[in-house]
Write a structure and sequence with these properties.
With about 425 residues, this protein is an alpha+beta fold. It folds into 2 domains: about 5-55 and about 270-410, no CATH class; about 60-265, no CATH class. About 55% of the residues lie in helices and about 20% in strands. The chain has helices spanning about 5-15, 20-60, 70-75, 85-90, 130-135, 160-165, 195-200, 210-215, 235-245, 260-265, 265-305, 305-315, 320-355, 365, 375-395, 405-410, and strands at about 65-70, 80, 95-110, 115-125, 135-140, 155, 170-175, 180-190, 205, 220, 225-230, 255-260. Strands 1, 3, 4, 5, 6, 7, 8, 9, 11 and 12 form a 10-stranded mixed β-sheet that branches. Helix 11 (about 265-305) packs across helix 15.
């Protein structure tokens, strides 16, 4: 144990008398550290939670990667993609792919006695993962859709149901305009609500067979294949690898493959989410500045109050670096105590919100009805380590004040 560490610990454990001038400054400094760290933890948890919640909703509607007809992806025509057994088996057995599912879409119009509106009818098969829609389901049920039997059932969003004044069990007439106008009467089997109007106002779910028949497509043809990944962090790499493997290849109809991931399909939304990172850095810088300056003021007051002690240490042979390390170690102890309370406050409030949903939001504005939080041990540790290192570095300059104190001058007025 070094001399500086030993002396700093004795000073810290010895406490400070209430009459000492340093006591209020130390309390304020530790409070600044605690509040600053708590605000940083809460801000990071909310922004990360918000980004994850929005991202998961977008992925829920279209998975991580979509494989479609290249001419359809960059054109206005609804062109099919032929799914061969070899392609399906290759995708289904890829270790990076969690789930593979087919879908078909067709634009149409919903007409009721009250109103009408445009929509996109999405057909799904029995292998389709409907866990996202089941999580968002508010009324009714998600039927077991198939590619071999038309159910004439549909799942619509709550916003669409409210606009058209529909409820479970109602029948709606849908119109599809291609070479000729086709009409299908569908039964409302379920109502979901994701609070994401860009998709809620557009998508209706039904069986794959019905959409294929409306598109006049044969069995084996679909609009595309959706691929879910095991790890979202591998999104860019998996997209590039799949694109490379299908480059120059065509399906049975001679159509070229097009591989797009969720970020390519929704660039505006993900650009907006990336901008939120700027808010995080602004908050971190401001809070570190506030906490650092309060700690600097506390350290200066402690040094001034301990002038006689500094003189005695120097008269006994301690050099400037040793004395500086005493006050830096003392600062580390005080910062650590402040950080402890900051973690209790910040993580405690995050857990309260995560499991209790105390703070509510307007879903029409924020895409969700509660404040989202995302807690992760690694970024909590990283944030604590960064706060400690930056705080100590900010004290290196002010601690040099001890070099200006001379033994004779410090003990003259003792």
């Amino acid at each position: 144990m070094s001399l500086a560490f030993f002396l700093a610990r004795r000073i810290y454990l010895g406490g400070h008398s209430e009459e000492k001038a340093s006591r209020p400054a130390i309390v304020i400094a530790m409070a600044g550290i605690a509040i600053g760290l708590a605000v940083m933890l809460i801000a990071v948890a909310i922004v990360l939670g918000f980004k994850r919640e929005v991202r998961d909703k977008i992925v829920g509607f279209g998975s991580h990667i979509q494989l479609t007809n290249l001419d359809a992806a960059y054109g206005d025509n609804m062109l099919p993609l032929s799914v061969s057994d070899s392609l399906w088996q290759a995708l289904a057995h890829d270790p990076e792919f969690k789930h593979v599912q087919r879908y078909s879409v067709i634009p149409g119009i919903v007409n009721t006695a009250e109103s009408f509106r445009g929509m996109m009818l999405k057909g799904i098969g029995e292998e389709y993962d409907t866990s996202f829609f089941r999580k968002c389901l508010v009324e009714g049920e998600i039927p077991v859709f198939s590619d071999s039997l038309s159910s004439n059932q549909v799942v619509i969003s709550k916003s669409m149901a409210d606009a058209l004044k529909l409820k479970i069990g109602d029948k709606i007439d849908t119109y599809y305009v291609q070479n000729e106008i086709r009409v299908r009467r569908l039964l409302v089997a379920g109502i979901y609500e994701s609070n994401f109007p860009e998709f809620d106002d557009l998508f209706m779910l039904t069986d794959l067979r019905m959409v294929n028949r409306l598109n006049l497509w044969e069995n084996g043809l679909v609009s595309g294949i959706e691929i879910q990944l095991n790890d979202y962090d591998n999104l860019e790499e998996a997209t590039f690898r799949l694109s490379e493997s299908l480059l120059g290849k065509c399906d049975a109809l001679g159509a070229r493959y097009c591989v797009q991931n969720v970020e390519m399909l929704n660039p505006q939304v993900f650009a907006w989410l990336d901008i939120l990172d700027i808010n995080i850095w602004v908050i971190l810088i401001l809070m570190m500045g506030v906490a650092g300056f309060t700690m600097i003021s506390g350290l200066l007051i402690i040094i001034i109050e301990r002038t006689s002690m500094i003189g005695i240490l120097k008269s006994l042979g301690a050099d400037n670096n040793t004395v500086r390390r005493v006050f830096l170690w003392l600062s580390v102890f005080l910062i650590g105590k402040g950080m402890l309370w900051g973690n209790v406050l910040g993580v405690g409030l995050c857990c309260l919100q995560k499991y209790g949903a105390v703070f509510r939001l307007d879903p029409q504005t924020y895409y969700m009805d509660t404040v989202p939080v995302s807690l992760s041990l690694w970024w909590i540790v990283l944030l604590n380590a960064g706060a400690l290192v930056i705080s100590v570095c900010m004290l290196l300059g002010p601690s040099s004040l001890v070099t200006r104190i001379h033994p004779a001058d410090s003990m003259r007025y003792e």
